[in-house]
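Board notes (copied after class):
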Amino acid sequence: MRKLFLSLLGISIFVVSYAQRSISGTVNDENNQPLIGVNVTVKGKTIGTITDIEGAYSITLTGPEDDILVFSFVGYQTEELEIQDRTLINVSLKPDLVQIEQLVVVGYGTQEKREITGSVATVDVDQLNKSNSLTLTDKLQGLVPGVSVNTTGQPGSIGDIMIRGASFFGGNNPLYVIDGILTGDSPNLNPNDIESVQILKDASASAIYGNRAANGVIIITTKKGTKGKLRINFTSNTALQEITARIPLTDNYGWARIINAAHDAIGAPRQSLADVDFNPDLNTDWQDVVYSENALMSDVNLSVSGGGESHSVYFSINNHYQDGTIEGPNFNRISTRLNSEFSFWRKLTVGQHFTVGYAKTKGLAGSESVEEYTGDIIGPFSAAYEMLPVIPVYDSLQVSGYGIGEFNKAQTWSENPIGVMNMFHNFTENVNILGDIYLNYEIVEGFNYRLSLGLSSSFNNYKRYHKKFSF
């Protein structure tokens, strides 16, 4: 820039002139590939150019150094960069997901969503990952219109999902297709590995999958390695769960008043405190006893991805642990995944998906277990409201060591929930293997032949037993 001072007829004139300078560089996409035809302009001016076949550009400026270059291209986010004193400016544009036409995985391939005549719902994976729920079905709750999910909240349990309402024949759960493999939902599936989820709602899905698709289809695509430098992603989440809702119940003195009122109502003599062994210091809050103060839930996930022009690899390992919000049940899962793809020639691609998961669930004792041995259905939730405040949690005078109700003293139809959960045990161990090997050959442009060999196998070990007891 040059500054000149001229004097004409006693008037001073300030003249500023700028030297020409050239700015050059390249514009690439998110995969570091050159973008052709990107508009490169100077903000607020009519100066501009476009990138060539190699993504390169060159533009000559005569303005100040605080000019701003604007890079714009259809399907990508516009980028603005200050020039300052630079002569070389390279930029990578990010895709504009709002502008890109949404592709939906349907059956054996993909289609643009606008071309699909059937009812297909695409799940927002970012919203899916905001949930700390254990399984995919729990995460889907409230995210997809027309899809209802009923969950028990028990650690390790899989929710019941209905896509088109209740079924008259068989169950309501849909068919799951994970990377092309027909399978069912499993707590061993790591939601962190999910790339996309599509839900086929109407009967047209049965044209591909048969009657197994009568209740709808959930198509899951897992993540692949990305081209470029090795990427390592580590996440760790810890949460605490607590049942805060409490039903206001009376205390030990309130129980005594109710008993007295019942005797007075029928004209029977009241029971003396000595007869019922009333202890004013014994006031058991069974809701506090049954409900855990803080139920720990943790999720640790490590993933590694990378690749080049002819290969890509994705590997992950996950550990998820969850305590129940009541004493007793818990869930622990360890799962690993390896996805890879290799291109030997331009038209031949070989790849695989492989995952192994192990899960151990300590179930909720006291429902079906007690029913089998006593004929009554007893659960800790109902017992928390039915047990009396004058019954202690532990009682050394009883054979079991747990407090129980006694006839004509503290009679109740319920069982000691802590005793039930400590006496009855049920454990479930599950090992799930899911994977496939595929070969894809492009015969001509737009026409591929794909050969896939898949495996879905599950091994279960279930134990249920009870200790010697007397309630």
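Comment from the instructor: The longest helix spans residues 252-265. The helical segments are 125-129, 136-139, 206-209, 252-265, 286-290, 368-374, 380-386, 417-423.
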